[in-house]
Amino acid sequence: MPKKKPVKINAALMHKIADKLAVGETLKDILKSGNMPTYQGVMQAVLRNDELYEIYRQGRVLQSEHFTDHIVRLATSDLPTFEDNRLANAEVQRRRLEIDSLKWTLARNMPWGIRDKKEDQPQAQTFTISWAGGDVAINALDDEVHDEDPEVIKH
């Protein structure tokens, strides 16, 4: 295989890559087209440059949205008619495998939703219970039970 000519990876090129990711193309297929960098080059660029990483990340998040629509289409489209039921079963299993693979990719590429913001995820809530004039804060994340807590009155 002939060696690729080095291509400078800048924000404009990364936007082109991200736009193609957003419509469901794979990174490897994108990079096979003319005048594109190597896979290794793109990975090194996104590791070393925060701006390029953010562009790449947005492309991956939008790619996941594309995959979401594809999953729905796979799950809801009618099966072709087969004379042999084994072929229909094979098609169902093929779709199941494709859906499972895409779900794994979605979970990896879009763990925080389309806005890709961790703070948009539901947070653990704290609430207060009050009785006999004394307030006690209860945190849903507390795993420890303190038997010797002086504020607890045992009956």
Indicate the mean pLDDT.
Answer: 81
Taken from the alpha-carbon principal axes, the silhouette is flat
Adjacency order of strands in the biggest sheet: 1-2
Number of helices: 5
Kindly describe this structure:
- By secondary structure, this protein is mainly alpha-helical.
- The chain is 52% helix and 8% strand.
- The protein has a two-stranded antiparallel sheet with strand order 1-2.
- The protein is flat and about 80 Å long.
Topology at a glance:
Layout: H1 11-22, H2 27-32, H3 39-48, H4 50-76, H5 85-109, E1 126-131, E2 134-139
Antiparallel strand pairs: 1-2
Short description:
The chain has 155 residues and is mainly alpha-helical.
Comma- or semicolon-separated keywords:
155 residues, two-stranded antiparallel sheet, 52% helix, 8% strand, flat
